[in-house]
Amino acid sequence: MRGENAVDNPVDTLRLRRLAWAGVEVRLGDVRLLIDPLEHAEPLAPALGAPRTPLPPINTGPGTHALITHLHPDHYDQRLIARLSASGTVGCHAPIAPALAEAGIDAVPQELGQPRRIGPLTVTPVPSLDWRGDDSDQVAWVVEGGGRRIIHCGDTMWHGNWWRIAREHGPFDVAFTPVNGVIARFEGYEANVPVTMTPEQAVEAAAVLGAHTVCAMHYKLFNNPPTYEEQPDIEARFRRAAEARGLTAAVVADGEPVPAAPAGR
Question: What long-range pairs does 95-104 form, CB within 8 A, spacing at least 24?
Answer without folding.
Answer: 95/137, 96/68, 96/70, 96/71, 96/137, 99/71, 103/78
